[in-house]
Design goal:
The chain is built from 19 helices and 21 strands. It is an alpha+beta fold. Strands 20-19-16-17-18-21 form a six-stranded mixed β-sheet. A five-stranded mixed β-sheet has the order 2-8-7-3-4. The longest helix is centred in the middle third of the chain and has 22 residues. The N terminus is likely disordered.
């Protein structure tokens, strides 16, 4: 299946940790980490106790300054005093700033509308099933015992009412599938999410980032020692959002829940960040990212962070890397982790995927239980021939994860009908699937039934290295053409072209159809029998360029062709980059006009050679856009 498309950007701090981890002998790295931990363990004993923050904040403050990590002052202040849950929130020292703006509503407007919020929240709470009421109440009682909430007999005038409900998630990627329940407080119904604006969008270390970090570690290490072996390690932050306190001075956030034993609605002041409030996302992730940065700088391990999941590749024989990270974050800084969820190994589950690091590259796969769960779900939808917008939204999220994690642009076309159904505003009898949706779900069933995986090669070909290809394509209403150059170590060594008339079947096609046909024919001509190639493709038609770059298109008649193109490319393990070339600079323009006279003129010292095209290839490409 597909390889990764493109190269993920890695910052200088992560690059330095990668370099150290990949090139430093294990015993030397362990000695360095031991000395670092000993020094800060001693310093921790000299300072006052941890206090009420999510960690030993004073020690974290001192450690950040010692490691040269600047710009965390606002975060440290919020860790000590509580995080604001309304207004403009963000951390420009930690994340890049987003576009300027203000919240949709003011705090005054938010409070003015709370009587209506309370009435609607109470109505929704009363309508919950008995089982849901018990689950909600149980979650409140547990948080009351933990000190995360405080009961209020009479909510104050600045109360914001958060209806609690339960979110159930099937963990199908575990050896024994289970249903995970999580309490969610409805920040949308409470309108508090409209009273906050994120000044700094959160940037996370996604599966692509982890794959690229692992690739760089393995590539750098095997360059020095071809026999080097690797593993991955992971940690899970305990009760992530609940570790951080929230401010309740300007707004008193009150969880609303019904006591099933009495039927009475009761109120609880939420002391911590809450799952369901928009501001919680940036506050928690800023804290988690700073913890990851401390590990990168202090222990020199390339630790990645995605919400409360932390992971790092390391040498297979480094038997203290995981315990050293736990000792720093939990033992010294006093932030809590789920030790029963820590793991390490050659085959490593992270973010719902299974990663392996080997000599041929970093393998990424969907776990068998998750694949089987998705296939079972899809077959059920197909069998009953019905999919509601709500179900489609949930399904789109699951399939979107598979698409972004493994397929790249492959899968985007068959994902679009699912998204369109999720956004359906009208109701129709039984929400029947219809042709496009049924066909898309069928493709997903067939694809996920395979052992879906991708491999990120340790040493992908870069411009100027190895052999790669440059392809320029063009078309007019009566002709198709393309120029292909083979480049080895930066030097052009071969140039070929094709020039072919548009057959009668394509006479009525628009120019963007024919431009796409030219690309399809060129790939069939030069890359059908190749594997693991890298090609830069230059086109001068914006519709075609957009569809190839995005893997989807608004041009309905091109959707199937775009999908087929990317599916073929994925199965060939090819890597294609698409760029726009101005029409006047496109040297494929002449062969598309069926002109050959210029072919005797050398290009960079190489004479172009004509390549014959099988008529059946052209006919098949045209049939895909009809």
């Amino acid at each position: 299946m597909p390889v990764a498309k493109g190269m993920t950007q890695i910052d200088d701090e992560m690059t330095a940790a990668i370099e150290y981890s990949a090139t430093t002998p294990v015993r030397e790295a362990q000695r360095m980490r031991g000395e670092f931990l000993t020094r800060w363990r001693k310093r921790s004993s000299q300072l006052s106790p941890r206090g009420a923050g999510p960690c030993h904040v004073d020690l974290l403050d001192e450690m950040l300054r010692d490691l040269g990590i600047r710009g965390a002052d606002a975060l440290l202040h919020h860790l000590r005093t509580g995080c604001p849950m309304s207004g403009v929130v963000g951390y420009e020292e930690i994340y890049s700033p987003g576009p300027p703006g203000e919240p949709e509503i003011t705090e005054e407007e938010l409070l003015r509308r709370q009587p209506d919020v309370l009435a609607r929240s109470t109505q929704a709470i009363r309508a919950e099933s008995p089982a849901n009421k018990e689950a909600i109440w149980s979650s409140v009682r547990k948080e009351l015992e933990a000190g995360f909430v405080v009961e209020l007999r009479n909510p104050p005038a600045n109360a914001v009412y958060l209806r609690r409900f339960m979110v159930r998630q099937v963990k199908s990627d575990e050896p024994v599938p289970r249903v995970k329940e999580r309490a969610c407080d409805d920040g949308r119904m409470a309108l508090i999410n409209k009273a906050v604006r994120m000044a700094t969008p959160v940037k996370l270390d996604t599966a692509d980032v982890y794959a690229e970090v692992a690739r760089r570690v393995a590539h750098r290490a095997t360059t020095r020692d071809p026999g080097a072996a690797f593993k991955s390690m992971g940690l899970d932050h305990k009760e992530a959002y609940r570790q951080l306190r929230a401010r309740n001075d300007r707004l008193c956030r009150c969880v609303v829940a019904e006591d099933p034993s009495t039927g009475r609605v009761r109120f609880f002041r939420m002391e911590r960040l809450s799952f369901g409030e928009a501001a919680a996302v940036v506050h928690y992730n800023a804290f988690a990212k700073v913890l990851a940065r401390v590990v990168r700088r202090g222990l020199k391990l390339p630790l990645c962070q995605y919400y409360d999941d932390f992971a790092s590749p390391c040498p297979a024989n480094d038997d203290t890397a995981l315990t050293d990270v736990l000792e720093l974050l939990q033992g010294i800084l006093h932030t809590s982790f789920n030790e029963d969820k820590t793991s390490e190994g050659h085959s490593f589950r992270h973010l719902g995927l299974v990663f392996t690091i080997a000599s041929e590259g970093v393998g990424v796969a969907i776990s068998a239980p998750r694949r089987e769960g998705l296939v079972h779900m899809l077959k059920g939808v197909l069998a009953r021939d019905s999919l509601s917008p709500g179900e489609a939204a949930s399904l789109a999220g699951k399939l979107g994860f598979a698409t972004s994690a493994l397929f790249g642009r492959v899968g985007r076309v068959p994902l679009q009908p699912v998204f369109r159904r999720s956004n359906a505003s009208t109701t129709f009898a039984g929400f029947k699937l219809g042709g496009d949706l049924e066909e898309a779900l069928g493709w997903w069933v067939r694809t996920l039934a395979e052992d879906v995986r991708r491999t990120v090669p340790l040493n992908p070909i870069q411009p100027g290295e190895g052999t790669r290809y440059v392809l320029l394509t063009d078309a007019c209403l009566f002709g198709l053409g393309a120029m292909m150059a083979t480049i080895t170590d930066g030097d052009v060594v071969a140039i070929e072209y094709f020039s072919h008339p548009v057959p009668q079947e394509g006479a009525g096609l628009q120019i963007h159809h024919l431009e796409f046909v030219a690309v399809t024919v060129a790939f069939a001509l030069w890359f059908r029998d190749k594997d693991d190639f890298t090609v830069s493709v230059w086109v001068d038609n914006d519709v075609v360029l957009g569809s190839l770059v995005q893997g989807r298109t608004r041009a309905r008649e091109l959707r199937a062709a775009v999908h087929l193109f990317w599916e073929r490319l994925a199965r060939s393990r090819g890597d294609a980059w698409f760029e726009r070339v101005p029409g006047a600079d496109n040297i494929a323009d002449l062969p598309s006009r069926l002109l050959h006279a210029w072919a005797g003129i050398p290009i960079r010292g190489v004479l172009p050679k004509w390549r014959e095209v099988d008529q059946r290839v052209v006919d098949a490409a045209i049939a895909e856009v009809l």
